[in-house]
Amino acid sequence: MSExxxxxxxxxxxxxxxxxxxxxxxxxxxxxxxxxxxxxHSIPFRLGKTFQKNVFYHEVEVSDYYVFRYPPYDLSLAxxxxxxxxxxxxxxxxVHYAVPHAACAFLAKQMVGDQLKVVxxxxxxxxxxxxxxxxxxxxxxxxxxxxxAVTAVSNDLIRETRNVLDINRDIDLTYNFVDKRVYxxxxxPSLRAEFANPNEKILMHISNFRPVKRxxxxxxxxxxxxxxxxxxxxxxxxxxxxxxxxxxINELGLGDKVHFLGKQEEIADVISLADVLLLPSEKESFGxxxxxxxxCGVPTVGSEAxxxxxxxxxxxxxxxxxxxxxxxxxxxxxxxxSDVALSEKFRKASLKRxxxxxxxxxxxxxxxxxxxxxxxxx
Length: 378
Ligand code: GMT
Fold this sequence. Notes:
The chain is α/β, with parallel strands linked by helices and 378 residues long. The chain is 44% helix and 16% strand.
């Protein structure tokens, strides 16, 4: 058996794909016997409230001394990382999202010494949005180049990182994953009846309603589908574009066909209500929500953006069209929703793909192998 490790994990602890992956990974590593120390400004929401063996949480406190115009969270985080690494004798700091976490880990390593290894996982917008910003670009490049290992969640994101930052170093591919004990199809007839009649199909969109998600396209797709197929649209999540979307739905007279569920924690229950997930994003380094849907047997209709085609197999587990091609996406959704045999075929293919190619054991092992490699303990 391989040696058990002490691993520090830093992520954005609130809702969001990078925080979900970081927290689920930490829990799985702890189940395997590793000691996992989360270092963040609040408890990662997916961690749960009950005590879990081998899981610890260290809170970053920020000084609000009066001379600071902006409280220096990044510096406090770096200092806390170093403190925890020394006190707990951490082997590895695994940071998720380059800004500021990879830069903080670099600073922490200067305080602790080279025996502390830093693994940085890039999740998407840290590269596709922030690394384009000249006020952060050089810092992100430094933090990536100084990490002992860098991973990214799709081949597309690896390509984008190299292009945007002119980086040549090795970057490991580590896809997002789902825990099969959580993501499986759930039969929820009474909950489904709350939103749709038995003859109606349910289309769903889950996101943080930021401009990159192109939520307006979701409404356009649904408007077209709804003309042909009795259906309802369920929105899950909240974010800046939500008010605009609500106005658009009312203008189109679709108010009685659309439900807004707000933020939800039991995503597997909610996704299981859907017949199809809509993901027409402008940018999407992977698309964790499409994988969560896949794990529940729900196919995706969406865009070919970023890493989505690495996950959703066009014509097998969903349908993809160029970004903004709402007419084509609507046609695909209609094709899928009007053919029971095709839907069932996609459902089975989705379940198989989620379990075989993106399962928790496989990806956790890939991360463990990276830790052992940087520690020189194969
Ligand atoms: O989708 C978002 O805007 C949230 C964002 C995040 O940083 O939490 O998600 C990113 O990381 C996820 C986990 O690796 C990926 O599955 C998402 O595709 C990625 N989002 C984007 O690239 C826009």
